[in-house]
Here is the input.
Amino acid sequence: MTSSPSPQRIRKNAEDRRSEIVRAAAVVALTEGLESVTLRRVAEDLGVRPGLISHYFPAAEDLVATAFGATVAAELDELLPPSEATPLERFRRFFGAAIGEKFDDVSRLWLNARHLSRYRPVLCAEVNRRQDDWHARLTAVIADGIATEQFNAADAGVAATRILVAMDGVSTYVNVGEIPPAAAAFAVTTAERELGLPIGTL
Amino acid sequence: MTSSPSPQRIRKNAEDRRSEIVRAAAVVALTEGLESVTLRRVAEDLGVRPGLISHYFPAAEDLVATAFGATVAAELDELLPPSEATPLERFRRFFGAAIGEKFDDVSRLWLNARHLSRYRPVLCAEVNRRQDDWHARLTAVIADGIATEQFNAADAGVAATRILVAMDGVSTYVNVGEIPPAAAAFAVTTAERELGLPIGTL
DNA sequence: TTGCCTATTGGTCACACACCCAATAACGTG
DNA sequence: CACGTTATTGGGTGTGTGACCAATAGGCAA
Here is the structure.
């Protein structure tokens, strides 16, 4: 006698169920990629029928975009949180956290999303939104540093853009073997140069 | 009366047929993405049965990797051909050609391949190979420039890596709307700095 | 010309996907 | 307690994929 397949249906509050779905989708997105975020896959993880996911996300693409957005927003808050610390300290924290296994997963996710944006307009819009969030948050920190004369840069927005481009360039290699040291250091080096900091500060 | 579906079978030399298949797959890869390189799709483009593609590429993944490799190799030869020109001229030609619609397609392809490498080991190996080709070719040009004192850089290989990372960073945005000017200029700026050239040289 | 090799066909199989819909059961409200 | 809303199920449809295979026919060599 196998354990009962628990055909009991548990009815939850709509909002709770929805966020539960998004959370499960986000886990799949982060660990296995956005292509693996399917109605079946998420339903299976939640021990629920695929039709239920369809009920909350009539178009599967919306779930994918939402899962991406939720994951990336959480990561931004973790890497560059609102804080009383000095801009320099915040940057140190930022680059300190931006290494290691977990960050690689997020890099993979960005790469994934940027490629998939080619085919999925909803995801594309979400990527643009989150990209702008990052740029704005980074620009604010840099502007603060310029105002307090800890940084030396002509234009905070331009500096933010360049730092982000450098980071995106490095994370491009996340799926293809080892990242050469010269490439890995490029992001930090770029930041130090753009912010007018001595080498080795960050 | 529709035109006859031409059920006549044309038997070609194996090598010719094979390269014909790779060429068709490369076109699909460049215009519609590596995910669209399927047995059926390529067969349809050639007016042939899917089984025939299977005959030449028993594993579909091999065709995908081959199509990517062929496309990228051709692009490298076009952008950075063996030449009698000076290193500076070759760089000017390089960045001159590295803009416009066609190059965007190649950027998309790289992004595509780098993401897909996450799941497909054969493609991953091919990406690494082509990446090394690019790095080697670029390093050679830079080393030439250093030897003839047109460039000023400590390490040709490191300079090449940094320039490539910057370019990859910029091309990251190819699928997501407009590329901000500050980002677009970053690749050229990086090259000028790494090669010890005055701004605006390239 | 005969006969072999294999390029090529035509079809099938199993799988995974999104989407749709009718039936059902849980929950809140009267 | 009865009723209506809706979260949830179960199943079906259509499409796309790679892989596999037996039968066929084109071309080359003896």
User: Anything to note?
Assistant: The first helix of chain A runs from residue 14 to 32. The interface with chain B takes residues 33, 108, 111-112, 114-119, 124, 127-128, 131, 157-158, 161-162, 164-170, 172-173, 175-177, 180, 182-183, 186 of chain A (CB under 8 Å). Residues 9-11, 38-40, 50-51, 54, 58-60 of chain A lie near DNA strand C (CB under 10 Å from a C1').
